[in-house]
Amino acid sequence: MQDYQQQLRAMFVPEEEIPAQHRIEEIHQREYLVNGEMRQWSGDVSEVYSPVMLPDADGVLKRKLIGTYPVCGEYEAMEAMEAALKAYDNGRGEWPTMSIVDRIKCMDKFVYKMIEQRTLIVKLIMWEIGKSYADSAKEFDRTVEYINATIDGLKDIDRQSSRFEMAEGLVAQIRRSPLGVVLCMGPFNYPLNETFTTLIPALIMGNTILFKPPKHGTLLHYPLLEAFKDAFPKGVVNTVYGRGAVVTPGLMATGKINVLAFIGSSKVANDLKKRHPKVNRLRAVLSLDAKNAAIVTKNADLKLAVSECILGALSFNGQRCTAIKIIFVHKAVADEFLKLLSDAVSALKPGLPWTDGVKLTPLPEPHKPDYLKECIDDAIANGAKVMNEHGGVTAESFVFPAVVYPVNEKMKLYREEQFGPIIPVIPFEDIEETIDYQIDSPHGMQVSIFSNDAKEISALIDPFVNLVSRVNINSQCQRGPDVFPFTGRKDSAEGTLSVHDALRSFSIRSLVATKLNEANKQLINEIVNDNDSNFLSTKYIL
């Protein structure tokens, strides 16, 4: 174990041995965006340390400082909110009343400026959260694709809304209108992509934004602040920096936040929602905790199941809400499955984010290795074993994945979302055991079922579609494609995200209606022909 620990420690090489194209200069942010201005900050700052460690002169490994960012307070947060409120102006502001065509032009300009920052942002994703270069680049590119798909989705919605509807002697035009001020808070694991899956649709629908970057993954948004400033009218996008516990409760307590868009823990989401004094006015779009299960039956293709479970459980070290976080395997095939799974884990390549073919990287949260050790020790104390060689071996910020078996209800790993590289495995005899687990679980996001027996799969599909939001057959749990609905039941989500669903989540159907008579026909035609209203219009966006 000590020998392998030393091998892992040896990954952390001196800075001069890091390929030149992947080295990073420290970035000390002293600006934040409010009311269309890049305001200077001279107060406290937060230091950003990478999970990538470097040996000092004595060979002691230390996290590399990659920069600092402002630690603003409640006063600055309130300034940002006032700017957003002013820009929205009770729905009368420039942005909420702007035509769809002109909003799309603004978003196109933002995307152009965003792409100019690709190299730096990809590098910052790697250094801030330890994501591999390939996955960091993929996150950036997928985010650009998501924005373009959102633009196309809005065009589709607008084209469908460009006609008039007639019923019971009334004529009406029905379109989607913005909701107001949106507080947008994203997660550290996909700090760009997941954040933008709420921020972008909220923005393009005409809402004004308060944007608080995630704790891990803050600096990577800095290169985009100028793009937001230049692409959108002043006050439409405003940043909120500082400790979440300091700056967000007061914002919610004002009752002036119309939408909470949050991706993170249900505990934080519940606390924020409770602080809002006008609960009927608050719409929440939330993606929260998950403990997605995989079910491997005796009729499964075990090699396929292992391949998909490895992807599902250990992509980005298992730090995904859509990760497979517990596996049920039938006792008849448990031994063979565990052997294949352990061998597959052992074959994964550990390394630093820029290492070619790397599959396992350091963890961004400083206290995560200690928590994972607690989970493993607790499982061992309650009768489980680590099944794979080197499972759970830790070297500073790096933890080698552990396959833990047999897991039971006494263990932390049975219920808690580990959000890291541990694969708990539970043996079962009766398929009802897997259904009972999901019934009792506070989570309800996804499940993966592995079997080649159509009747067996059918018997599982029908109960699980009413327990989780997505059932995956012979494939890992995942979010995409972005045109598919992404949501969850119970404590796992509120609202639905996909390209079209997100646009609907951040808007409301509004209509203009009148009695169908000659005088009103003439009135409506005059408004439409003279292009006097951005809402009441038959313009068709191509």
Molecular structure report:
This is NADP-dependent glyceraldehyde-3-phosphate dehydrogenase. Residues 63-507 form the Aldehyde dehydrogenase domain. InterPro entries: Ald_DH/histidinol_DH (IPR016161), Ald_DH_C (IPR016163), Ald_DH_CS_CYS (IPR016160), Ald_DH_N (IPR016162), Aldehyde_DH_dom (IPR015590), Aldehyde_DH_Superfamily (IPR050740). Belongs to the aldehyde dehydrogenase family. It comes from Mucilaginibacter pankratovii. By secondary structure, the protein is an alpha/beta fold. It folds into two domains: 19-286, Aldehyde Dehydrogenase, Chain A, domain 1 (3-Layer(aba) Sandwich), CATH 3.40.605.10; 292-489, Aldehyde Dehydrogenase, Chain A, domain 2, CATH 3.40.309. It is 38% helix and 22% strand. The chain is built from 18 helices and 25 strands. It has a seven-stranded mixed β-sheet with strand order 15-18-19-14-13-21-22, with helices on both faces. A six-stranded mixed β-sheet has the order 10-9-8-11-12-24, with helices on both faces. Helix 14 (412-415) links the parallel strand 18 and strand 19 (422-428). Helix 6 (133-161) runs parallel beside helix 7 (193-204) and helix 9 (244-253) packs parallel to helix 10. It is globular and about 85 Å long. The model has no long low-confidence stretch (mean pLDDT 96).
